[in-house]
Batch of 4 targets.
Target 1
Amino acid sequence: VDADLYIAYTPEGGEAALRELFPAARALFPQRGEDLGSRMEGALDRVLALGYGACVLVGADLPLLSPGHLEAAFAALERAEVTLGPTPDGGYYLVGLRRPCPCLFAGQVYGVGTVYEQALSALRRAGASFAPSPPCADVDTPEDLAALWWALRGRDTATAHFLEKLVQGGGAPRGSDAVSEVCDQ
């Protein structure tokens, strides 16, 4: 994707390892804020303050994220102030802004199945223009990991190979319940 990469990380102290993982990153900076919303808002605001016309933020739990997801998000920001990419569990994996949008983060409750809808309601109340990004599954629970394992079985990707080793390391369990058992250990 033709975009500059910034990494907002936590906890502090892990920058050297992240630099190795993301050598193309323009900069790395620690997350600031008391909760998830304030940390997301702070990271977006910090990058937008550098003069960019748009910024897209994603989490680190997105093994199925593709360049297409990011390209679609930047395309959505060409026609709206805000974009969100929904997840199957009612949250969102991606938030993109053209300018700071405090209403999106103020008073939000995260970790519940209505996060995406809460965010849309906040945007409507504030009169902010919105264009959706395509959905993508994140990995929050053992069940999500099991679904990912089933979705990637037989594929020749680093993630598929890693999950296969994880499952086999747990005694070659069968089915999604077995993947959950491996994750619970």
Target 2
Amino acid sequence: GELLNDSIGSILQQTLKEIQVICVDDASNDNLTISLLDEFKNLDERVEVITLENNLGAGGARNVGLEHAVGEYVIAFDSDDYAYPQMLETMYIQCENEHLDMSICGSYNVDLNSKGFVSALVFREKEGITSGCFSVRDLGDYALSYWDTAPWNKLVKRSFLNQYGIVFQEIASCNDVYFSIMCALKAERIMYCQNGKPFVEYRMGRKEQISSTRNPVDLIRAFEKIKKDLFEINP
């Protein structure tokens, strides 16, 4: 709740105004979260709040959001991160102009305890390929080493997700690994947005973060599902 105001506020203040903001309350018992979501819903007609009766976890909650999405593109944004004002508009324009399945922006990692900059997500580059439109197949045997699994820096065409049935894996942690890697493997047209310029702050240091309690077994489950589904989802 203490970060939700900044997070949702940064989305509502985007220069791209024609957006649908789906807030999935995963059976929260935090009064501040509940009250803030109610305020945002009453403040802005673009906000839709879906309150789940039972906790589904991040993957299940994100899938509920995907089911309610009607826009041409989607992005799964976390409740504690912060988007710079031109993030969505810049990525959207790139997707439209280049007919992309997915646009990917860079990010800054910010430590909540020190309130300071820690690092930046720097994309690996392959000369003559990643500077323009590419697919993972263009990157060779080590293609996935170019890939981060965060969903909050990827604007993805919704019809592309529907075509391949790509959703989030409903496991306790690493639920975004399956989603992001399947997007990478199936997408025909990917671009780094403005060569990886950071448009979002990933906030670190909260003990409640799912990323701070990742279970290695869940990572194994994610790759097992990728292997199983890779040739079954509309090859």
Target 3
Amino acid sequence: GWTALYLRYNSGLRISMNGRQLARQLQKLVEAWPVPVREIALIGHSMGGLVARSACYAGGKSQLGWTQKVSQVICLGSPHTGAPLARGAHLAANALEVFPLSRPVAKVLNVRSVGIRDLRHGYIADEDWRGRPENALNAEALTPIPRLPGARYHFIGSSFGADEHDLVGKVLGDGLVLLPSATARHLADADTAVLYRAHHMSLLNHPVIYAQIAARLGLRKPPTRRLAPS
């Protein structure tokens, strides 16, 4: 009952810029679709989840019609409040700038795109970064992003840990994103789920995650029976 469409975007751009472009593309898509579009679900992994939320924000501000058709926004391992690995690279670059011998290494680290820099703090709106120092170590409060009124939000994360109390998971998260960032339900009144003993990329093709998505979209479960070779 759903038609799956896939999006490629330029991860070198600001997340908010990608969000605006996606908002415009979705409006064109809905207008050009051969039959009336009844419902839209947005599913994004990692930065893609932030781009999806940013598109909803941009589309809502511009009162684009497609936003009224969004029923589900599902984010998989998205760093809603920032990613420690991105912050670590930023801190390392600042530290290496201090010494002449290490400045060439710092320059290499500073080649990171603005989109990757946005991951440090989970910036998804222009207001998050505009007018603020690019190399600030600490972020100010994120811009409050209203939820689309007709949509349900789902933040699904993963962790190396065996459960929420596991120290490994608390320190390493899923290797890229910590659970409090991936499941920041307060940002969009979202429901959450966690896949334990799993890394960041596991969220892309794990059967448990598929089941979570299928349940939220009202899909039938995939067949478990294996086909015999012909």
Target 4
Amino acid sequence: NKAVAKIYAKAHRRSENWARHIAIDIVSRYGVLALEDLNLVNMTKSTKGTTQAPGKGVAQKKALNRSLQDAALSRLAYWICVKAEEAGRRVWKVDPKDSSRECIACGHTEAANRCRTRFTCRKCGHTAHADVNAAQVIAARGLVAETTWRAAGCPVARRPAPRNQRRKA
């Protein structure tokens, strides 16, 4: 239906515009950026299962998938990388493993450290908002990547050669 396609196109343009403007704002504020290297395709897979082995928490997972896709995280990450390259800034994609469970103060990682929105380290007692602590862990990992890169003499990243898309007639 053309009307439905028009509505989806408008929503896509709005989301694209939002991501582009937020990326410009973020890149203009910081010289070096760190992003979690999330595999959003795997994160938003269905849990329906089969008739013999139905999935658990299907409705909750469906709602989580919808909110992850509505947030347009991969689109925002893409535009941050594009705008950072245009501005001559670096973006480090860091491993997201245990970033919400690791203590920024002492480095202790334990599942019990995080309880919904509160982070309390079981080893050193550091407390913070869970998302703030995770963001600090990601920033610290980005800083490690930056210092390692500088210590290696700031090597230039090699890009793969573009493939020729023309077909021979």
